[in-house]
Every structure is written in structure tokens, then in C-alpha cells.
TrEMBL record, chain A:
<feature type="transmembrane region" description="Helical">
    <location>
        <begin position="148"/>
        <end position="170"/>
    </location>
</feature>
<dbReference type="GO" id="GO:0016020">
    <property type="term" value="C:membrane"/>
</dbReference>
<feature type="transmembrane region" description="Helical">
    <location>
        <begin position="6"/>
        <end position="23"/>
    </location>
</feature>
<comment type="similarity">
    <text>Belongs to the APH-1 family.</text>
</comment>
<feature type="transmembrane region" description="Helical">
    <location>
        <begin position="30"/>
        <end position="54"/>
    </location>
</feature>
<keyword id="KW-0472">Membrane</keyword>
<protein>
    <recommendedName>
        <fullName>Gamma-secretase subunit Aph-1</fullName>
    </recommendedName>
</protein>
<feature type="transmembrane region" description="Helical">
    <location>
        <begin position="103"/>
        <end position="128"/>
    </location>
</feature>
<keyword id="KW-1133">Transmembrane helix</keyword>
From TrEMBL, chain B:
<feature type="transmembrane region" description="Helical">
    <location>
        <begin position="155"/>
        <end position="180"/>
    </location>
</feature>
<feature type="transmembrane region" description="Helical">
    <location>
        <begin position="108"/>
        <end position="126"/>
    </location>
</feature>
<dbReference type="InterPro" id="IPR042524">
    <property type="entry name" value="Presenilin_C"/>
</dbReference>
<protein>
    <recommendedName>
        <fullName>Presenilin</fullName>
        <ecNumber>3.4.23.-</ecNumber>
    </recommendedName>
</protein>
<feature type="compositionally biased region" description="Polar residues">
    <location>
        <begin position="55"/>
        <end position="66"/>
    </location>
</feature>
<feature type="transmembrane region" description="Helical">
    <location>
        <begin position="250"/>
        <end position="267"/>
    </location>
</feature>
<keyword id="KW-0914">Notch signaling pathway</keyword>
<comment type="function">
    <text>Probable subunit of the gamma-secretase complex, an endoprotease complex that catalyzes the intramembrane cleavage of integral membrane proteins such as Notch receptors.</text>
</comment>
<keyword id="KW-0256">Endoplasmic reticulum</keyword>
Amino acid sequence: MECAGCTLIAFGVPFSMFVFTIAHHPFRIIIAMTSAFFWLISLLLSSLLWFAVVPLRNQLAFAVPFTVLFQEIFRYLFYRLIKKAEFALQKAQMQELTAKGMVFDRFAVAYASGYGFGLISGTFAIVNVLSDMTGPGTIGIFGHSPDFFIATAFLALCIILLNTFWGVIFYTSLDKDGIHRFIGPAIVVFTHMLFSCMTLLNRKSTPTYSISIVIGYVLLVGMVIYTLILRGFNINNIRQRLN
Amino acid sequence: MRRLIDDNQDSSDEMTELLRSQGDDTVIDDRERLDITNLPAVAIIQTSTNAENISSDAAGASSNSPVEVIDSQDRDNTRRHRRDGQPDEERPLNSEHEEIFKYGASHVVKLFVPVSLCMLIVILTIKTTSSYTPGGATWAYTPFTEDKPTNTQRILFSLANTFIFMGFVITATVILILLYKFKCYKIIHGWLILTTLMLLFFFLYSYLNSISASLNRPIDMITICFLTWNIGVVGMFCIHWKGPLHIQQAYLILMSALLALVFYKFLPEWTGWLILGVISIWDLIAVLCPKGPLRILVETAQERGEPIFPALIYSSTMVYMVTAVDPPGEPQFAPDSINTNSIAVNVDEPLSEEQRAQRAEIRNINARRQLIPRSDVPETERRQEPARYVVERSNSPAIGDDDDDEKGVKLGLGDFIFYSILLAKASALGDWNVTIACYVSLLIGLCLTLLLLAIFRKALPALPISIAFGLVLYFSTVHVIGPFSAELSLGQVFI
């Protein structure tokens, strides 16, 4: 029962995002899949690093920042790859592609790649916890926090959504000129680092989940607002639309 | 009995003319002229390039008039050239990228879904039942067990197992090619039908048995036999004769999943890994070497202008339906063909048994011949066909160029099987991260192969890239990523 609930908490929103925005567009599915693969490679590199530095294996504070850095590097590499693909496609006949509804939509690509990053990241974080939830056992019997599962579910949801917005911010600002080109990625790297390092605080026997969860969702709201600004929305604009 | 509408490689306008005046263009074999009086007409649309007579029996193909081989690529170019009114040479790059996109997105996803379904069946079965676990029984293909005291012995025995297994595969492939080369279609079809029969009935039966046993839900024998019989018979119909495309696809997926489960159960652990690696290499050699057996097979099939064994590959588009061949731009013809096709089904009843069988055969053959020369996957003894997929080249007129459904992507069932075996091995560990990593990497490998296919435009082995990615990520996930992410998720550190 708890397994089902936590699954729905963590994957309910991403699943509906998938159904409504990605599932009907084969190109976006492939983009999401490929970015998930890039995330896997970045994870492979960072875990190799973690594995290689034997004395610091227990100190996740060493490995986690590098993991974040690797992820952002691979996000950038994926951006380069996408640019190459876009360049190649621009040579192709755009007319026929447009007729097929296969326009190269930068926003959609950014969204799908962010979604792929987030989905696999969240999945890797929670899937084994979910499978443990079904099994026999009682949580918190040795003085650990009884909120372990539900906190994990909420944090996984948070990281999925955050990655989606990070993807959009990263790619959209790289497409822009001037100062935005640097601010966006910097914000992404900084907030990613902040979030991951905040979750390091959870590594206690009785952690205060409210810190990381609140920070995560505040960051999420901030990212949403920043994304809206980047996409050209402002308060007046939104007010007009609402009216 | 049949009217052949020949597409004489003229422009599409002429094609339309030809199709309209199909009544005048009727071509009738002498030996079947007699039948005309008592049989309703069945229109068979023959879009293949030549005026070859369709032999009423594939096995009797020796009486065939020689087949003129026209490279479908040339035809495509000609058509495109005519349609656009501008030479094709002016935009080779464009058409290439166009192809990439056309074959790309939607077809890749059309393959993702069945592959994922097959994997899902396998994983669910492994997770829920205990009867499909490796170990215990061995079978004739891998006679040695790996329960040896030292690692050296284990490696040696698994190597021996692998060589025996690959020996079977290679022998079966060679036999198949010889049979095909000498046009022993009847033997091949008999072989295929027997294999499918055994797969569907025996494996399904044992599958139902073990499911009911491990779920502790007893089912009586009668119900199981009833289920097996019905499912099996429908499957035989759909796979070897005709049936709705989706049902056929479902059966192909089911069979692959069953076979993957059996493989997973009977292959010892290290033998399984070795076989996965070796069969990818074999696939690579067999398809890409100039004298590779599968390449010979593909080329022979393309020369003859016919698919080899339509039942043994998963195709994402219509195979048997006339509509798949019909150019969508010619609506005035499409209803006609569908009608006549359905007539062809209905009129079977008053016929004698022999005639019926004969006509079924004809229809089957014709339906296949309407498809384009595409290379298929051979069936080896246990259906370890070296897997690959092929893009079906459309022979239909240029109007069809805009229609994506015309060109399906085909994936050998062997791919399904070996992908599923890899994933089964991954999921048996109990670490879902390994399963997910392998799944993503297998599908990315498939994506890459399809991309290469769009670039090279010839039959490519689908196993090597995917299996290589899968193996690399399997072992790295088990030994490196797994502990790291376990540490992370235990400490609730999110990255």
C-alpha cells in the first residue's frame, strides 16, 4: 500500500507529463531516451570516480559535487549533440518536415531532454526503495525516521521536476545571446549543487526532512518563475492572459 | 482467376491509368484459364516491378519465369525525380536527411513499444514466478554444467557450451540458406510451421502450468488445454496465414517472450553471457561480410523479389493487407482492392478442400510478393535467427512516398529474444537499477542501429550495438553504479 502511494507521489506528475506532452511525439520520446542515456554515462563516470577513490567512499560529500558537475557537463554535451542534429536537419528540406509536423522545436527538445534527465535520475534514486517497500519489514524499528519512504518519494518528485526545468533553462539560455548565455547555466549548476548538497543533510539516523524538502520545492518554484521569465513571460503578460 | 496489374515502372500517371484500366490488363495464366469460369475473380495487385507470373505454388517455383531484378532504390529515385520534376542528384543530402527523419522518430518508437512489451512479459514472469530461474536442468545444446570447483573449469565448460550452441546456430543457418538457395520452399515452410507449433503449444502449455503452480492457483487440465489450444490455433492462423496485424504482432511478441524465458531458464549463467556476446559477433559477421551467409540470403531474397519468411520478423506495418500496398493517393482504386480481397475470402467456402488450400497458398504468396524485396531473418533450429531488421523498401508508386506507413521497420524476433534474455539476467539480480540501465542502453543501441540504417540503407545487424551497450552497462551497474546509487538512496542523497 505504501509502495503504491509512494509510486504515485513520485511518478504521478511525471507520468501525466509524459502522457500529455511526450507520448504522442516520437521525436520527444527519443530525445528523452537519449538524454537518459547521457545521464547514465555521467553517473557511470561519477561512480567510477567514487569507486576509484577508496578512502573517501564513505564521504559522499566528496562524490556528490563531482556527480553534479558531471551531470551538468553531460547536459552540455547533449546540448552540443542536439545542436549538431539541428544543424544537419536545417540542411534537409524543412518543408517536407514541416508537413509531417516534425519541426525542430527547441523548447520541446529542451523540455524532453530535461524530462529524460529527471526521470532517470528520480527513478534511480527511488526504484530500489520502492521495491523494498513491498517486502517484509518495518521502517524505523531501529530508531530511524519513519518518514523515510514518503520523504524519498517527495524528493524524487522534486528532482524529476527540477531536472525538467533545469533542462529548459539550460538550453534556452544557451540559445540566447549576451549575458543570459552565462547566467542560465550558472544558475542551473548552482541550484543543482545546492539541492544535492542539502540532501546530504539527510544522511543521519533521524534527519530533518523538512530542510531538504522545503529547499527543494522553493528551488522548484524559483526555477518555474525563472523559466517563465526566460520564455518571455512577465507579470503583466500573465495578468492579461488571466483576464 | 487473377488479374495482374503491372506497374511497368512508368510514371505514376501511367500507373494510375494502368490501375484504372485493370480490366483490360488482365493477365491470365493458361493453366488457370479453366478455373475462371467457376471462380469469382480475385484481383491481386502486383506492384512488383516485373511481369512475372505468379506461380500458384511457391514450392513449384521452378516453373517460374525468370524474375527481372530492378533495384528498388533506382525505382524510388526515378519516381521521386518524376514527381518533383527536378533531378534527384541535386539534393542527395536532403533526401538522405529526409530519409533519416522519415525512418526515424515514429518507426523507432514503433519498435520501442513491442520490444518493451516483450521485455515486460519476461521481467514480470521472472519477478512473480520462481519456476523460470536458471539452473537445474540442462538441455542438449549446452550439455555441460557449470557447477565446477574452479573458475578455470567453469570458463572452459562454458566456452565448450557456447561453441556447441553456436555450432547449432551456424549449422541451422547454413541448412536454411541451402534450402532457400535451391528453392525448397516447402521444406522451409514446414520447418517454420513445426517450430511455431511447438513454441506456441508446448511452451505456452508449460508456461501456463508453471504460472499456475508458482502463484499457487491450481487450474484444471481441461482449462489449460482449452486455453492452449485456442491461443495456439489462433496464433498459427495469424502468423502463417492471415489475420489482423495487431494480433499477429502480439503473437510474435508472445512467442519471443516465451522463448526468451526458456533460454533464460536453460542456459547456465556464464554460457548465457558468452552466447550473448558471441552471437552478436556472429550476427555482425553473417550480415556484413561479403560472403556472410545471411548476406547471401538477403541478396538472394532481393534478387527473387520476395521476402523470405514473413512470419519470423516483427514488422511495424501491414504485411498481409492489400492497403499496405495500395498507394494512398489513389482512392479510386483502394476500395476496389479491398472488396475483391474480401471476396477472395468469402468465396472460399464452396470450393473443394484442395482448391481452397491452393488458393490460400496463392493469396499468401501474392500477399507476400506485394511486399517489397526486403531481407528477412532466417529461422534457425531454435529460432536463434541472427537478428536484424530491415527497412522495407516501398515499391508502390511515388505518391506513396509521403506516407510513412508504407515503409515499416522490421526487427528480427531474435533481437527480441536476446534483448529479453539480457534484461532477464539483469532483472534476476533484484536490483532494479541494473534493469533500467540495461533497458535504456538496449533501446539506445536500437536507436543508433536505426540511425545507421537510415544512413547506409541496407540490412544491418541489430544485435551488436545494443548488446555491447547492454553488457557494458550491466557489468558497470552491477559493480560500480549499483553500490554508489545504493549508498546514495540509503542516505537519501539526490543527485
